[in-house]
Amino acid sequence: MVVLNKIYTRTGDKGETALGDGSRVAKFATRVDAYGTVDELNSTVGMARLHASDDMDLALARIQNDLFDLGADLCRPHMEKDSEAEYAPLRVIDSQVTRIETEIDAMNASLQSLRSFVLPGGTPLAAHLHLCRTVARRAERLTVDLSTSEDVNMATVMYLNRLSDWFFVASRVANNNGENDVLWVPGANR
Q1: Residue 25 contacts by C-beta under 8 Å, 6 or more apart in sequence?
Q2: pLDDT tens digits, one per residue of 105-144
C-alpha cells in the first residue's frame, strides 16, 4: 500500500532519484526516462478521457491503471532479484497484453479496411488518442533502448507495442467508426 504524507522530500535536489528497489540513479537515466514517459502517456490518456464516454472511458481507465503497473515494473530493476524482495514486485503479465489484443480485435471488427494512412485528427477524442499513440511509441522506443543495456520485463515492451495499436484503432472508432478519418493524400500540396 502506498502512503504519501509528504510530497516533497528534497532527496532529488542533486539530480538523483530512487528506483523501486531503493537504489539511486541520475534523473536522466534511461530507466527513469522510460517510466517517466509512461507517466506522461498516462497523463495524455487522462486528457483523452475528458472526451470519452461510457465503454471508451472504462477502457481508458483500465489502461491508466495498467500504465501505473507498467511504470512500477520499469522502476524496479534487477528482475533476477525479485524473489529476494520484501514484497512481490509488480510486473506486467501476458494476460494484460492479451486483453489489449482482444479489445483491438473487437473494435477493429466494425471498421472498414484502410486504403490510405490516417492523419491525426477528426473528433477531439480521436485527436487525443493519436497523441496517446505517439507517446506510447516513444515510451516503447525508450523501453526497448533500456532493454539493450539492462534487465527489462519484455511484457512491458509487448504491452506498449499493442497499446499504440489500440490507440490507433480506438481513434478510428472515435471518428465515427472510421467515417470521419482524415486520410493522407500523398503529394496533395505539390
Answers
A1: 16, 17, 19, 31, 32
A2: 999 999 999 989 999 999 999 999 999 999 999 999 999 9
Domains and CATH numbers, the chain: 16-181 (1.20.1200.10)
Task: Output the nine-digit C-alpha cell for 103.
Answer: 479489445
Binned at pLDDT 50, 70 and 90, residue 21 comes out as confident
Separation of CA 170 from chain center: 14
Instruction: List b or e across 82-94, with b for residues whose CB sees 16 or more CB atoms inside 10 angstroms.
Output: eeeeeeebebbee
Grid coordinates representing 4 are 504519501
The CA-based dihedral angle spanning residues 169, 175, 180, 184, taken in that order and rounded to the nearest 10 degrees: -40
What is the model's pTM?
0.92
Q: 167 vs 27, 101, 116, 148, 163, CA distance in Å?
A: 29, 12, 18, 26, 6
Segment 67-99, tens digit of pLDDT: 999 999 999 987 777 788 788 889 999 999 999
Instruction: State how far the Cα of 74 lies from the Cα of 154, in Å rounded to an integer.
Output: 10
